Amino acid sequence: MPRKPIKNGLQRRQFGRGERRLRGNELTSYLAMANSEDPKERLEAMKNLCPCHVRKRVDAAWDALYSGLQDIDLKVRQAAWHTLEENHGGRPNAPKRYPLMVEISKTEVNPKLRQNAKSIVRNAQSQKQNIEDKKHDLLGKRSNYFQGKCDWCGDSSTEVDYLYDSEIQIGTTVRLAQACDTCRSEYGL
Q1: Which of 12, 24, 34, 120 has its CA 20 to 30 Å from the CA of residue 66?
Q2: CATH code of the domain in which 96 resides
Q3: In angstroms, rounded to a whole number, what is the distance separating the alpha carbons of residues 23 and 177?
Q4: Has residue 88 been placed in a domain?
Q5: Residue 133, C-beta contacts closer than 8 angstroms, at least 6 positions apart
Q6: DSSP H or E segment with residue 178
């Protein structure tokens, strides 16, 4: 009696060998095809410069992919966008990407591709805004300044903050030390 398979066909396909990798000369030939005059060759290059085929960080491949986003031929642009949307371990926060997306969102003729670029720009702007808001919140919470006397310079009309790692004993009372910003920077407190 034949042995019953453990996995069904869909499960076997999922655990298959996966995407074909580009090796050695194949990568250079696809990079050359990305700069070709023939739109069919550029289309083939955009389909094969996907990170799941390249499998390592090659800046020339990413530059070719980004140039494909601004190609004259619509099918080449769509293939480049498809590769970017899949983004199998790609570089979503690449420094070249944001200015390129801003430019594409203004100049793209195809409404779907323009909308994709606008959504990437909006997401990047909201992430930047969230980071700035968090920085502002943390800066506001960092210190609790109040009017008091600095224990190092003796100035009593300055804003001071508690030093949580230094205590001062006055008689039988122990309190946290207070220092102004100039003394903190001068003495490295």
Answers
A1: 24
A2: 1.25.10
A3: 64
A4: yes
A5: none
A6: strand 173-180
pLDDT digits (tens, 9 = 90+) for 115-167: 988 888 888 888 888 878 877 776 655 567 788 889 888 888 888 888 878 88
Q: Tell me, what amino acid is at 178? A: Q
How many structural domains comprise the chain? Answer: 2
3-state secondary structure 47-95: HHCCHHHHCCCCHHHHHHHHHHCCCCCHHHHHHHHHHHHHCCCCCCCCC
Q: For residue 61, give the nearest of 72, 47, 74, 75 by alpha carbon.
A: 47
Residue 167, beta-bridge partner list? 176
pLDDT, tens digit (0-9, with 9 covering 90-100), for 88-122: 545 656 777 788 888 888 998 999 988 988 888 88
Residue 52 has pLDDT above 90, yes or no: no
Determine how many CB atoms are found less than 10 A away from the CB of residue 5.
Answer: 9
Q: Percent of the chain having pLDDT more than 70?
A: 81
The pTM score is 0.58
Q: Classify residue 139: in a domain, yes or no.
A: no
- Which residues span the domain enclosing 176? 146-187
Q: Are residues 26 and 111 in the same domain?
A: yes
Strand partners, 180: 160
Determine, yes or no, domain membership for 34: yes
Same-domain check for residues 26 and 113? yes
